Each structure stands twice: as C-alpha cells, then as structure tokens.
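Researcher: Go.
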Amino acid sequence: MKARAKQMFFLGLSGFPLGMAAIQRQKLISKALISEGWNVVVICSRGTHNKELNIKKVGRYKGVLYVYLFGPFRNQNFIIRNLQKVIAPFMEFALLLRFKRRRGIHAAIVSNRNSFLASLKYRIVSKVLDFKLIINLVEIYKRRENTNIPTKINDLLFNNLGVYFYDAVFPISRYIRDSYSLHKKKHHLIPIITDYSYINSVSIGHKLDKPFFLFCGSASYYSSISFVIEAFSLIDIEDCNLILVTNGSSNEMFLIDDLITKKHLNNKVIIMKSITDRDLFSLYKSANGLLLPMFDTIQDQARFPHKLAEYLASGTSVISNPIGEVGFFLKHLDNALLSESGNVNRFADNMKWILNNQTDAKIIGSNGAKLCKLNFDIKIMSKSIDNFLNNLIQSD
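Model: Structure:
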C-alpha cells in the first residue's frame, strides 16, 4: 500500500501565487517539497490582488493548493477589511481543523512574520492541532529608523522571545541563524533558492538598441533604487539605458520618477511593471549587468536577496557589494563585480568596466551561474529540506 503523503501548510503570508521575493521563496520551497512527495497547502488570510487578475478563491498552482479565506481580491471597504482581520484567525483555525481531520497536518511554515503575537497565536494552534511549527526567517528587525513605539515593542519581544514558540527555524543567512542560536532550536539554513534549469531554458529576448543595466526590486527599497540611479548618472555614456523592474505605492513611484527627472535621465531610464517571470529572466540574460547594491546595515548584513539567485542563474555579470552572505559567496572579478559598500563612484566604475570589457564580463557571468547551480539550485536543496523535516516530525 502506498504511503500517505505528508502534509505541509504555509501560513502568515498572503498573495500566493503572485508577488516578489517572499512569494517566490514560498513557491520554490513548495516545489522542493512536492518533488519529495509532500502535499503543500497555502492559506492566505486576506485578499491582496486587483480584480483584473484571474485568481480564484481556491485553486492550484503547479501542484500547490491555495485558499483565500475571504477571496483573493482586496476589499475596498475599510470597515470590512478590519473586520476580516478580527475574524481571520478563527476562520483559519477552522480550516486547519478540517484539514487535520481529513488528511492530517505534519508541519506548517510561517512565512516572513517577525511578529510576536503571530508567533504566540500559531504556537497555540500548532499545539492544539498537534503539528510541528517552523518559521522562515529572511530579515532581522533591529534598530530600525522611523518606527513607532508598538513596532519597537514588537521587535524587542520577537527578537528575544518570538522564536521560542517555534519548533524549528529556516534562516536565510548565517547572520540570522547565529542571532537566534541561543534559543537552541533546530536550524536548517535555506539560502536564496532558484530553479536554475528553468531560468537556463529561457531564451534571450529582443535586445535593446543600446546596452543596458537592470535592477529588479520593490519600490519600497528606495535607498537601493536611488543609489542605482545615482551610479547610472555617473557613467556618462550616451548610448546606454537603465531598466528598473519595480512597483509600489503611488508615493513610492512618485519619488522614483522625481529623482529620474532631477537627474535628467527621463530618456535613459525605463521603468517596467508586472512582467512575467519568463520575460524577466529573458531581460536578465539580455542585460550587460545586473545591479544589487548592499549597505553596511544590520538589515543588509542579515538578509540575502532572493533576486541574487535569479541574477546569477542568468549568466549575466552581477554588480554588488561584499555585505553579509553576498560577500561570503561572491568574489570580485571572479564571479561578480564588487566594491566598497556605499561608494557610488566605485559602483559606477564597475558598470563602466563591464561596458569596456565585455568578453571578461561574460566569463564572470558564467562563473556566477556555476556558483548558483552548485549552491542555490532547487535540485540541490530539495533532499536536505525533506530530510530535515522528516527528522523534525519524528522527534518528540
């Protein structure tokens, strides 16, 4: 008789299957689990999408069952949205209870929720329904500027007590792993992860008439985008473009547009939004260089940008800074171009170097792709994730 598949749930993150880094990581870990025989269910407690998108309340995406408690679309009524926040935990528990009775629940991963109250809530749920609880940690929130008092209190409680409520931790970096090592939890490092074979299969699209550099990331990372625009303004080469694949609130986009105008770059900077993964990967392969500025802050020391794995897999040279995990894996003029963090002139120099040394730049990009395949490919990680989870659910 065939063994019954193990059941994994993703909790605490809405937006599946569309979205940037957090959703992409969720999709890739799900794919890794499915390849090892797991069933995966994603529960989304709130609607986040516009009605123009063809997303169902309950559906499947590449083998993953996803459920929106209130439907996938964002309710425009403020009162209803806040009422849903109150009701959601009870509906989520009821849904988990039904799954528990029908199929069982072996484990659940709480995605990207550095929330003390969420940690306490999900600990109670996991104990009542008897499943292992794991947190996927991709950032650390310490000494953040411009945060209100409730947020500061949450950060303090979570950093000192929040991880206590989980059975295991999936940290994305050594910095995060070591920061929570005193909790004596089971840790399994899952760095940036990508589907190398899929990206490698994407063909190069239509090249622009001019060489171009590309940055991909949320408009909320304004410091990164402004740094990229400033560096691009310094290379002072007429026949060159900068592509920003970004999206955000109207205010965030206004700030970006305003900076481009102030730098007199309206004819040289192209902003793209909501393009498919295949088109994005094709752009990566067509670019002369892929940009990822990192800063010497606690947040950047701790994080490991998901986008880097995709960048490297494309075989195009990456320009970045040796901060945190980026500095651990990448070496200047070997598999990337690196410069002192915060030095916009040196960052611009690396952009100019690529334009003037295209043959060597291709070798560097190829070395980056080899590094990605050996360290960040989903095929490399699937078995180790499965082994870790099997040992976890069999432990007391």
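Model: Residues 7-193+378-394 form a domain with the Rossmann fold fold (CATH 3.40.50.2000).
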